[in-house]
Amino acid sequence: MSDTGPMMRVSLEGHIDLRSVTGFLDRWPEGVQAGSHVLVDAGGVSACDSSFVALLIEWLRRARRAGATLEITRLPQQALALAQLYGVDAFLPLTPEPAKT
Fold it and tell me: Source organism's superkingdom (predicted)?
């Protein structure tokens, strides 16, 4: 985690799928800048499809473009399995333990 910028937390909950994912794009915090640290808590996600994995990749891109860091915590097992299936799990900055769902 960076000491130079603000810590921002985004908590996600509910179903994140093709129908709902666009609403979650707006949850990206304002003011992310170089040195910021964005913590995405996905522990409240009850169901998801590959759209959720795409959302996390988009947020990772946004963080990198801003010079910020991103960390994803409590990723549901379903999302982790999808990320592994698509071969992108190694790119996602996940904390060690996925949430049990």
Answer: Bacteria
Least confidently predicted of 54-58, 82-86, 94-98: 94-98
In angstroms, rounded to a whole number, what is the distance separating the alpha carbons of residues 36 and 74?
20
Residue 98 in tokens: 């996925």
- Can you read off the two tokens belonging to residue 77? 């097992």
What angle do the packed helices 50-66 and 77-86 form, to 10 degrees? 80
Q: What residue type is assigned to position 13 of the chain?
A: E
Task: Give tens-digit pLDDT for 36-45.
Answer: 999 999 999 9
Mean pLDDT calculated for residue range 83-96: 92
Residues contacting residue 50 through CB under 8 Å, at least 6 positions apart: 82, 86
State residue 98's pLDDT score: 46
